[in-house]
Amino acid sequence: MQVSKIMVITLIIIISTATSCRMSHEERLEKYLETIDRHEMMEWMETITDERYNGRLAGTPEYMEVAEWVADKLESWGVSPAVNGSYFQMFDQPYTVIHDVGALKLHRKLPDGTTDIISYQAPDQYYPGMNSGSGELTAEVVYVGYGITAPELNYDDYAGVDVEGKIVLVNRDAPFRNTRDPEYARWLPYCYHQYKVKNAHAHGAAGFLYIDGASANPNIAYIEDLIVKGIGSEPLNDIFDGTGKSNRELLAGINSSFRPASFNTGKVMTIRANTSRVEDGVTCNVIGIIEGTDPDLKHEVIIVGGHLDAVGNAGGLLVNGAIDNASGVVDIMGAAKAMATSRIPLRRSVMFMFIGAEEVGLVGSELYTNAPLFPKENTVVYINLDMAGNGTGISVRGSYRAGGLLDFFIDANDNYVHRPLRANAPEVETPSYGRPRSDAVIFDRAGFRTMSVGTTNPVHRTIYHRPGDDISTITIDIMEDIARMLYVGLIDMANADELDLR
Ligand SMILES: [Zn+2]
User: Distance from the CA of 387 to the center of ligand 1, in angstroms?
Assistant: First the structure.
């Protein structure tokens, strides 16, 4: 009698608790959805893009300060440290301080035999090499096409030209353009900026002009006695002036024939850089986790990440990296805060990863994928956010094997966000052999399922890797909605009985 009475009471308690739990899950989900707030997210944007962080270049103390600020936020919300009790996965990262923008000048020969000097302006006509050696050089400019020496491909842009002590003029990428063609894989090693400066130096060049539209690029190897600049169309046109050639025509010829078109331009330029190298720089990924509550499923992890670093300050040309990529960081922070403070239990673990040293060559994601904190087999997906803060619509792209996970975000958008959403994944495995240009590609090539979340219908012109990438070019309301979509989608993904994993 006594026993069964207790059982009945217990049963009633269990049933009512279960009912109130189910009720409160929806209520709690909605309550904390509302706490994802554009005003607070805007304050975070203002902090991360503040000048005091000096463009968040990987290796600098200023990057470490902003990394600590992010970790403090995670801690205050109850997101646990993921790296053996720490939020920081540290690694060495040398970097270059650029003291001023230096100079780029053309010594132009006039018809009367005299010479005048054209001085170009940064950042519109040229950009200081972000890892340039220091010094000044006056020398002839030699055009070397793509700057590639590939004996096994029977291709050498340096054949037949002497670049010793001279300034080479180099294009990005490679003559083979179809990155979906497996043949492209053979050209891949020669597409890296790092390779091109090393190859120029190996051939004796003392200066390196990169035809890259004059933008900040810290993803270039540092070579002490090589002076590097990125150039735009005006110096390029002046170098070709009177040669009877143009870069565009030469590239078209190289691309169709796979024959180099290198030549001495006869133009003399002065290039100057004022830099110093810091060999003992350190940087980090910042990683927090909400551990799963299910004894089995907690060993599976969903990772959402985006790079925290930006391209730094080139002698006063300060890039605050608002779109690229404070936007992705703040989207993730919005979701992380709501997930952690709601205390909605998650069966699987969810990891928040703020990646370091993306801009210097995807170093932080490479480091993580080489030594993941959860085995790859137990990682459901890596979801990347890079430049996700300018527009009125949302895009979610999955790799082939992540295609079965799109519905979590489609449903989250349908039920709570109601933005135009473009969500897709290829129907078959479609590898790309091009140079990796985002952290998602690093995870993808390491064998992880990946997704990339971005925006559609841009409202502002995106200023990429140049001064002006400031909060004035972001649309904070789409960021609020991306954070809300992440929040609902991640909770549902973490709690699903089964996942459709290819
Ligand atoms: Zn980026």
Answer: 6
Q: Are 495 and 349 in contact (CB under 8 A)?
A: no
Distance of CA 162 to the CA centre of its chain: 36
Q: How far is CA 15 from the centre of its chain?
A: 49
Q: Which two tokens stand for residue 419?
A: 């933005």
User: What is the residue-averaged pLDDT of the chain?
Assistant: 94
Q: Which has the closest alpha carbon to 105: 129, 141, 132?
A: 141
208 pLDDT exceeds 90? yes
Cα–Cα distances in angstroms (integers) from residue 33 to residues 174, 182, 412, 485, in the given order: 47, 45, 11, 9
CA of residue 361 to ligand 1 center, whole Å: 11
Peptide bond preceding 325: is omega within 30 degrees of 0, i.e. cis? yes
Mean of pLDDT values over 77-87: 98
What pLDDT, on a 0 to 100 scale, did the predictor assign at position 424?
A: 97
Asked: is 98-275 a CATH 3.50.30.30 domain? The reply is yes
Query: Residue 34 belongs to what H/E stretch?
Result: helix 2-34
Query: Whose CA is closest to 216, among 93, 360, 104?
Result: 360
Neighbours of 113 (CB within 10 A): 6
Instruction: Look at phi and psi of residue 54 and say left if phi exceeds 0, alpha if psi is from -120 to 50, else beta.
Output: left
- pLDDT value at residue 431: 82
3-state percent helix, strand, coil for the chain, nearest multiple of 5? 35, 25, 35
Lowest mean pLDDT among 143-157, 241-255, 420-434: 420-434
Ligand 1 centroid to residue 359 C-alpha, Å: 7
Percent of the chain predicted with pLDDT > 90: 90
Give CB contacts under 8 A, 24+ apart, made by 151-158: 152/186, 153/186, 153/187, 153/258, 155/258, 155/260, 156/260, 157/260, 157/262, 158/199, 158/203, 158/262
> Rounded to two decimals, what is the model's pTM?
0.93
Q: Categorize the per-residue pLDDT at 22 as very low, low, confident or very high, splitting at 50, 70 and 90.
A: low
Characterize 218-233 residue by residue with b for buried, 16 or more Cβ atoms within 10 angstroms of its Cβ, and e for exposed: bbbbbbeebbbbbbbe
Q: What single-letter amino acid sits at 497?
A: D
What pLDDT was estimated at residue 278? 98
Residues less than 5 Å from ion ligand 1, measured at CB = 324-325, 386
How is domain 32-94+279-495 classified at the architecture level of CATH?
3-Layer(aba) Sandwich (3.40)
Structure tokens that stand for 203 in this block: 């051939």
**Residue 84 CA, ligand 1 centroid: distance in Å:** 27
Domain boundaries, the chain: 32-94+279-495, 98-275
| 329 membership: H or E segment, kind and range | helix 328-342
